[in-house]
Every structure is written in structure tokens, then in C-alpha cells.
Amino acid sequence: MSISSTAPTATLQPMDRSAPVFVAGRYGLVGSALWRHLTAEGFTALLGPSSAELDLRDRHAVFAWFAANQPHAVILAAARVGGIKANATLPTEFISDNLRIQVNILDAALQHGVRRLLFLGSSCIYPKAAAQPIREDALLTGPLEETNEAYALAKIAGIIQVRAVRRQHGLPWICAMPTNLYGPGDNFHPEDSHVLPSLIRRFHQARVDAVPKVVNWGTGTPRREFLHVDDLARACLLLLERYDSDSPVNVGTGEDLTIRELAEMVASIVGYEGVLEWDPAQPDGTPRKVLNISRITALGWAPEIRLYDGIASTYAWYQSQSGTNQEARAIRT
After folding, report:
1. Can you give the pLDDT at residue 192?
2. Roughly what angle, to the nearest 10 degrees, separates helices 195-208 and 307-320?
3. Which residues contact 238 (CB under 8 A, 6 or more apart)?
4. Closest Cα to residue 117, out of 157, 69, 165?
5. What is the pLDDT of residue 189?
6. Dihedrals φ, ψ of 217, to 5°?
7. I want to staple 121 with a disulfide (CB 3.0 to 4.6 A). Which of 155, 219, 263, 323 is the partner?
8. Cα 162 to Cα 227: distance, rounded to the nearest angstrom
């Protein structure tokens, strides 16, 4: 079974820049990029409570917050996230936390009549053996990658809930599926980070400590696609203003490279000149994952930040933090 698609419509209006918009996950990688972009675009009533101010897993607290703040639109970017090791070792937390965050926000948004909502998923929702580049209609057509199955199923549940709201209540809620993201504000934790920030941190430290070699997980042969989070932020606003369909929308670059090539690029940017080795006893994950982005490019969007330039600017940001981001939380709220 696959999720059906309806054509995007052209009936949507530009977002009201003065109306309250809830950016759930405001202090995470995606949320902070959304905040920057929406602020630059003239939004003057953004709402983004921290996790200390609002625990999104607490249903009563979420409903009370919606009642008090009455957001006009919601971008659901909050999630427990992590790399392959975190997903493989903490599947209970990944499915439980993400389901609770999503259900609480979606139910509260429905109860309070939020007209426009964007749910952000992940490219890991697609089957492990999906034809490449992956089209949106590949969803629910095959088994998932085992190492992040719990996270992927939580995100799929969010897509289905958004679709149910559209069918039952007629609200123009939508879903976007970003590819692998990176940029300022990323999580560089030694245990929980994704592959690109992990490589930046490890090569940086190896250069500082003059370590002669760095051993990386897997074979280095899987192919991945990477999108700068600022490009995603632009895509999110465009979708909120131009897209209305029950099908999720892929957001990526449509281009990929091997993890080995990525590691070599990061080492070059960081200035690490030691040996790069690979540990094939560790998991590779899905052999290849690159998205078909024809749906969003047809709306007039295209990525603007080249991977090399984006990694270089992210590394500069990482250095400017003086280690303060190394213990970033796995729950990006």
C-alpha cells in the first residue's frame, strides 16, 4: 500500500506575517534555521518555547499552552533525533518520545482550529530497498531500515495523522520529508550525532590532538544526500504558502556521494591530514538514499548552498562555539 497523491493547488494565500506562528523545536537544528528565516521574512509573532518552558511530551501542558497562545500556524520540527548508533541502541525512546510529541501537538492544533500546519518527517520513512531516487509514493511499499525503524515508524504515524485530519476535517495540513540535514545548531554529541557533525567533531579533535588515524564506522560505501538546514527553512515557507496535498513532499538536493567521499571532504575542510580507516564490523545502514525532488522544484524551489561551502561554514560555526554544543540534547525542542 502506498499513500495516494493529489495535485498541489494554487489557492493558498501568503502567510500572515503578523499572526502567531508556533515553531515547535525552535532551539534545534531545524527550528533555529526556521526562526532565522521567518524573522528575515518579516514574521513578527513567532512562538518557540524551550523544553524547560514546555515539555512537548506532556499532553496537559501542550493543550494548556495552545489555549493560552492560540497559534495561527504550526511548524512541527520538534523531535528526538540521533545518528545510527543512537537509533540502534535507544529505539524505545525514539518511538515513545516522538509519538507523544507529535500526537500532543497535532491533537492540540486540531482542537484549537489551527488552519495551517507543516509536519516535518525524515527520508528514513522510505523502504530500505526503495528505487532511487526515492519518490514520495514509495512510502509504505516495503520494509524499513532496521537500525532506525522505531524513529521511522513514529514519523510515518505523523504523516498518517496529518492525512487523517485532511480527510476528516478538511484542513490544509501538509508534510515535508527532508533528506539528511546539517548546518549551524547541529548536534555534535560523541554518541548521539548524525554522520556529518560526527565527522566534523572527530576530525577536528584528531587534528587538535595530532592523532595519526581516524577509524570510521562501516565500509564508507553507502551513498547519502545532504541538505543545508537554511535551504530547508526556505522550502518550508514556500510549502506553507504554495502546497496543499495529502502526499508528503521530499526536500533534498537530488545529488548524493559516498560516506567515504564525505569523510574525505570533511577532513580536507577541517585540515586533518592523518589516515582515514573504516571498520566494516559496524553497520552501514541503507546502501543508498537520495530523494526525487521534482515535486518541490516544480513549485519553484531549488537548493542554493553547495555541500563544500555548507560544511565549511558549519565547521566555522562549530569552532566559534568553543565546545559548548558538544553536549547538545537529543530531544531538539
Report:
1. 73
2. 60
3. 296, 299, 300, 301
4. 165
5. 82
6. -70, 145
7. 155
8. 24
Short-list 143, 146, 229, CA closest to 185? 229
Among 72, 78, 77, CA closest to 44: 72
CB 214 within 8 Å of CB 206: yes
Nearest to 185 by CA among 177, 176, 194: 194
Quote the cell numbers at residue 76: 512541527
- Determine the pLDDT at residue 194: 83
- What are the grid coordinates assigned to 261, written together? 567521499
**Domain ranges in the chain?**
21-187+226-254+289-306
Q: Give me the DSSP letters along 57-113.
A: T-HHHHHHHHHHH--SEEEE---B---HHHHHH-HHHHHHHHHHHHHHHHHHHHHTT
Quick one: how far is CA 125 from the chain centroid?
A: 12
The 3-state DSSP composition of the chain as helix, strand, coil percent (nearest 5) reads 40, 15, 45
Whole-Å CA distances, 175 to 98, 120, 246, 273, 323: 15, 6, 8, 42, 34
For helices 259-270 and 307-320, the axis angle rounded to 10 degrees is: 50
Q: What are the catalytic residues? A: 151
CA–CA distance, 50 with 196 (Å, rounded to integer): 25
Helix (H) or strand (E) holding 264: helix 259-270
**CA 139 distance to own-chain centroid:** 17
Q: What is the CATH number of domain 21-187+226-254+289-306?
A: 3.40.50.720
Cα distance between residue 177 and residue 227, in whole Å: 12
Q: What is the mean pLDDT of each run of 10 residues along the chain (333 residues)?
A: 42 91 97 98 98 97 98 96 70 93 98 97 94 97 92 97 98 97 91 87 95 94 97 98 97 97 98 96 87 98 98 97 51 44
Cis peptide before 303 (omega within 30 of 0): no
